[in-house]
Design brief:
327 residues, alpha/beta, Rossmann fold, 7-stranded mixed sheet, 3-stranded antiparallel sheet, 14% strand
Length: 327
Amino acid sequence: MTVRTLILALLVAASANAPAAEPHLIIVTGLGGESYYSDLFHRWAGSLTEVATTRLGISPARVIRLAEDPSQDPEFIAAASRKENLIDVIHRLSETSVEGDVIALVYLGHATTRGDSALLNLPGPDLSAVELAAALDVLAGKTVVVVIAAPASAPFVETLSAPGRIVITATSSTSENQHTRFGGHFVDAFAEDAADLDKDKQVSMLEAFRYATREVARVFETEGRIATEHAMLDDNGDRTGSRDPDGDGGDGVLAARVHLQAPAAANTAAGGEALALQIQARRLVDRIEEVKRNKRSLESVDYLQQLEDLLVELALNRRAYRAQQVH
């Protein structure tokens, strides 16, 4: 089966089997550049896939995932995250979705700037902000959410901004070009009751943005480091993002109303506990890999102690997960 045929089959199935109000979700992971980042983006995407299809109740057919290496998870990854595949998914969704549908695109990876162009780093040719904007234009009449969780992503706000569109970037300037942590926390927002500030049992785009920005700031503060990323949100089409959207007349009004919860989402207590343990395990693996990556900058005793603590915590997590599965 060709990539195009596979993607079309998935989208047609979604159109036939899911209610009109159920969101569509496109998850894209870019080039990692090295195994540490490739594995990190893969874990983030896997968590978002699981959260979307369990806690949020989105039909698996409506979750289209493109990745650097489809062989890592062939059951869930439709195709490689090449720009032609992403553009094809967007065009197919324009044919299978209906007016008023929510279509969310979440990019987890690296981005760069080259001259006046902002680029998503994908396998094969990079995808520019201008090219992505042109592709998204076919989704007129739908509510579109675009999350660019990547360094140097700020220019995507100006280029992608449009009426009825929510654009979120991990950074507020091109000079913020180091690896960003926003993506992992944004994913976590949809699995955390703490992100649901108004306690309406669903996490809006504005709530997810606020949760992620708060957690990113907390991490930098805990580490005693100056923050190297400041996320932005634009949802009023003025091509100017806000670092602190208030949902009161400026940016944030649309984002406060839009969420990814399916109408008939069912999250049982047992299922919710299992998912929480899985998300916690992913966070622990992220931290373990970060400690291993920073080994040279740590004293030997500190390195071994941090690693041991995290491994013990992970083992306890896995024990609790297995016990929960038995019940």
